[in-house]
Amino acid sequence: VEQHLAGEWLRLMTLLGEPRLIECSRRIFNRVLTDEQRLNWFQKKRLSQDYWAKVCGLSREQLAHAQEALSKSRQKDKKNGMVSVPEPNFFLQRLADE
């Protein structure tokens, strides 16, 4: 089931083509999936920006700019006193239940 969800998520990110969402997805997949799952599904232990850009039809530079934009957004939120919400642990908890 998890592999199908990851596949659908990847398909959606590719269709949307939004670099910031694609970079966020890469980070989430690196955090949520185990090394073994990434090796089985992507043949990579870690999903680098180079690899992820090729998979999603973007350039490495587009993902780097997206990462920079996300970082600037977080810094701006901190300056304005906004508290960033941590990423949901739903997937980590779900995988731990198995």
From TrEMBL:
Return the protein name: Replication protein
